[in-house]
Model the fold of this input.
Amino acid sequence: MARWLAAALAALALVSGSMAPAQTAEDVHATERARFGFGELRRGASGTPTDGNAANADEAKVGQFALPPLFASSTPPTPGQWGQRRAELERLVEDNWVGRIPEVVSQFKVIWRKEAAPARRGATAEQWIGQVIAPDGRMGPTIDAILTFPAKAAKTPAIIDYTYIWPGGRTPNFGGPPPPDGVAMALARGFTHVAYRPQMLQADSAAQMQQGVIGLARWPREKTDWGALRAWAWGASQLREEMARDPRINGDRISLQGHSRFGKGVLVAAAFDHAFADANVSSSGAGGAKLMRRDFGERWENMASSGAFHWFTPNIMDYAHGDRTTASLPVDAHTLIALRAPRPLFITSGVAEKGDAWVDPTGMWQAVRAAEPAWQLFGSAAPTDAMPKPGSDDDAMYTLGWYQHTEGHIPWPGYDEFFEHEARFAGSKGR
Done:
């Protein structure tokens, strides 16, 4: 092992002096557009109501749209046939939305280093750092997480919380009521809390895309290669596998939690890795759980812009130029959601009136309902037809759960409902 690590360090030294000149996100965006023949893209919607290209916030102006079918025929598949249909949908989602993971990634090694970290009273904490190494010895970025264990932890459930790090180490302020102590909430319920920092594995900017695990696998990207959402998900799965080896953690009860762009990331991780016990997808919006054909709030063109395209496969730009629109997409958010079936999933949102209009709560609820037939194949009951009022848990305690809290673009008003969902469908109540 020491000889292998020494070779990796030597390879890193060889390439460190030949890094490409710094590029901006706009540079990388322009290069990929030109490389794949997408040309000029339509401008994304503006969040300013007085702007001439303002996002639609009027239900009367949404218009009619038809969704791609979830099943291959009018006759639903049997549970045994769902695996084949799911594989077909998975490839469509990969090629047009989140991207494929290059084959070489299956040969990556992750070498873990674990160190004691400052902990609150009555708990212990460790920082886990997984060094990613390519098969040719190149050392890439790291999978970074801080695990806080309850006192005398043994086979505890765990929650991997996608945790924000802004430049300078700041955490974002989403506004609204002050957040609760998420670590304390997890510990009080007997969970190990895992602050997963995905931006350490893949930066949240196209300008640093080459320096992350995406660039380590292949650069420049191919037309249907992965973006940051899939890269973060890969890191979360590697972390889950390592956690499952630890006797302090119950490997069958490792769940996910993420908000906004990290809500998108958590949805992708849960859709492609069914070993996660449950997932709390908070206010994920466009590129996540929101129907993209529905013209309300953020649009697909925003996802294809230089500020967001790095989350996805380059091929998303094909639906933002010329006469190509989301109507041409062979999938939509309900397809991505359905990849999780029949495993537990919990999708949440705030209310538009308090700041969550951009992510289109109604569009997310409609996507959940359009994906529900995949769970019904396995005997899940169907919720009521009407969208529940904010604060109602009418649709929350189904395997595919939906909950809209009464605040704005923040995740914590739905935490209690998620923990109840996890206990019912992943915990002892669901086994």
Summary: The domain at 24-430 is CATH 3.40.50.1820 (Rossmann fold). Residues 79-98 form the longest helix (20 residues). The chain has one domain: 24-430.
